[in-house]
């Protein structure tokens, strides 16, 4: 699959799910801005323990999905999360590289925190 810009990936995910609500950018600042206020401390703490590379990408993916969920109206939150999950899957498919299981990502994050 050819590399796709992020906005094209999000558009495709929106089309597949029908989600029309807010979607923050996939940047550190945009994600934090879209998170519910009570999640900011956990977000900042996890961010402060990360380096770059796959752990950082997993961090962005996780918190970006949470930011979308926090931004969505309650009645469409499930569709919003589906849209975010599809966008992440399309992004991974468009940018092949090493893949990690959830357990491997969790172990890496725990290692970075130590």
The gyration radius over C-alpha positions equals: 14 Å
The amount of helix comes to: 55-70%
**Low-pLDDT regions:** none
Q: Look at the helices and sheets and give the structural class.
A: mainly alpha
- Number of helical elements: 6
Strand fraction band?
under 5%
The termini sit apart by 37 Å
- The chain-level mean pLDDT equals 87
The count of β-strands is: 0
**Shape call:** globular
Give the ordered list of helices and strands.
HHHHHH
* Largest beta-sheet details: none
Descriptive report:
The chain has 114 residues and is mostly helical. Helix content is 67%, strand content 0%. It has helices spanning 6-17, 28-34, 40-48, 54-71, 77-94, 102-113.
SSE order and pairing:
Blueprint: H1 6-17, H2 28-34, H3 40-48, H4 54-71, H5 77-94, H6 102-113
Helix pairs in contact: 1-5, 2-4, 4-5
Quick tags:
single chain; 114 residues; mainly alpha; 6 helices; 67% helix; 0% strand
In short:
67% of the residues lie in helices and 0% in strands.
